Automatic annotation (TrEMBL):
It comes from Salipiger aestuarii. The lineage of its organism: Bacteria, Pseudomonadati, Pseudomonadota, Alphaproteobacteria, Rhodobacterales. Signal peptide: none annotated. This is 3-phenylpropionate/trans-cinnamate dioxygenase ferredoxin reductase subunit. Keywords: Dioxygenase, FAD, Flavoprotein, Oxidoreductase. GO terms for molecular function: dioxygenase activity; oxidoreductase activity, acting on NAD(P)H. Its cofactor is FAD. Residues 9-306 form the FAD/NAD(P)-binding domain.
Length: 408
């Protein structure tokens, strides 16, 4: 990796997925200047997907979800400041001011501050058995509230709510999912796949109530009972709220970088913000996709955009194409998706599997725009290759060909 001699100090704000990926790329690529990593959590960088899955069931540990080890940090001379947050960015002086009063100068700054759960903003927020999930501490608290025989109320049928619901069922709880919209994962999934997800949950004994809301709650410190707007009364022991995430873009807003009203820092295809010395990546960044500004919230995007940002901070012009791959695990079903899957004009080619499993190809003008595998992860590796080579769909071969490999 070539380095620009004028770049002697790179500062990364946030110490999560994207930050760790950028820091590793910088050091593994030969950057020898100062590298400061600032994280408000009191942890080494760790990955979040297991928080709603393996860490909750106990099949992963807090150590196993770590992205950078202490020895990597030391061996690679990373000035890692944990448990301290960035308070402001002085763009003119090119330094960051931290919550402990320190001023950290930068030649290049990467903002990788991620996002935080959207809150309900009502009485439920103050109850001790109502949880949001973003951090290891959240996962610990939720884990101790998932008690066999209890009832979990999941507010929101999005990824987090459904994953925790599946985990709670596995741990022996009764689960009710309450979603105000008329479908599951409405922002990210086509309706037919949302329906398959609901069926999956119902098949495991979870009740999924769409177009439903909580009207009233009872309980002082804890919520003990809720009444729904359909009149139903539920006795509950814990609540998980998963109603979306909000970009941690306050620093950028205060520093008058370009941000969008709905949240997120606008970056160009070189991961640069409106200030040429400042970059952004991961959940906090917004990129242009066609005519739209899109904020991706996924492991793969955080990872790859962090790599691109690191290289671009060193003067390589890496044009970043968002990595759209996403996965989720619920019960014994692995769901993966890639590409554009919500285009209303696409034709859906469904490859059925056993026990409700399937693979959907979304085809527009003979090209595969996107793919969802529902319990058939093997299909994803073939699907990726078909997309990469621009495979032209001529008939129903995606459905009828016994082995997709033959089409590659
Ligand atoms: C429970 C859960 C399950 C998930 N499951 C999946 C999955 O199955 N598949 C998938 O593709 N994606 C999944 N995701 C999404 C994925 O984990 C995120 O997209 C990814 O973590 C984003 O990485 P990031 O680096 O942008 O942000 P983060 O990993 O959130 O890191 C940002 C860090 O910056 C810190 N920070 C914020 N502000 C400041 C400040 N001012 N100063 C210092 N530090 C600050 C934050 O505390 C945080 O530690 C899941 C997310 C969650 C929460």
């Amino acid at each position: 990796m070539s380095t620009d001699s004028a770049i002697n100090h790179i500062v990364i704000l946030g110490a999560g997925q994207s930050a760790a990926s950028a820091a590793k790329t910088l050091r593994n690529g030969g950057y020898t200047g100062d590298l400061t990593l600032i994280g408000e959590e009191n942890h080494l960088p760790y990955e979040r997907p297991p928080l709603s899955k393996a860490l909750l069931t106990g099949t992963a540990t807090e150590e196993s979800v770590c992205l950078l080890t202490q020895s990597f940090v030391e061996q690679h001379d990373i000035d890692f400041r944990r448990n301290v947050s960035a308070r402001s960015i002085d763009r003119e002086a090119q330094h960051v001011i931290l919550s402990d009063g320190a001023q950290v100068p930068y030649d290049r700054l990467l903002i990788a501050t991620g996002s935080h759960p959207r809150h309900l903003g009502n009485d439920l927020d103050s109850k001790s058995n109502v949880f949001y999930l973003r951090t290891i501490e959240d996962a610990r608290a939720i884990r101790s509230a998932l008690v066999p025989g209890g009832t979990l109320l999941a507010l929101g049928a999005g990824w987090i709510g459904l994953e925790v619901a599946a985990t709670a069922r596995r741990l022996g709880m009764d689960v009710v999912v309450v979603e105000m919209a008329d479908r599951a994962c409405g922002r990210s999934l086509p309706n037919e796949v949302g329906e398959a997800l609901i069926k999956l949950h119902e098949g495991h004994g979870t009740r999924v109530l769409l177009a439903t809301q909580v009207s009233t709650i009872e309980g002082t410190d804890k919520v003990e009972r809720v009444t729904l707007n359909n009149g139903e009364v539920l006795d509950i022991s814990a609540v998980i709220v998963g109603i979306g995430a909000v970009a941690n873009d306050d620093l950028a807003r205060a520093a008058e970088l370009e941000v969008v009203d709905t949240g997120g820092i606008v970056v160009d295809r070189f991961t640069r913000t409106s200030d040429p010395h400042i970059y952004a990546s991961g959940d906090v960044a917004v990129v242009k996709v066609g005519a739209n500004l899109v904020r991706f919230e996924s492991w793969a995007n955080a990872q790859d955009q962090g790599v691109a940002a690191a290289k671009n901070m060193l003067g390589q012009d890496i044009s970043y194409e968002p990595n759209t791959w996403f996965w989720s695990d619920q019960y014994d079903i692995n769901i993966q998706m890639i590409g554009r899957i919500t285009d209303p004009g696409a034709t859906v080619h469904t490859r059925p599997g056993e026990n409700g499993r399937f693979t959907n190809f979304y085809v527009t003008n003979g090209r595969i725009d996107g793919v969802i595998t529902f319990g058939q992860p093997r299909d994803m590796s073939f699907a990726r290759k078909l997309i990469q080579k621009g495979y032209e769909v001529t008939g129903d071969e995606l459905v009828t060909t016994e082995n997709l490999r033959k089409l590659i």
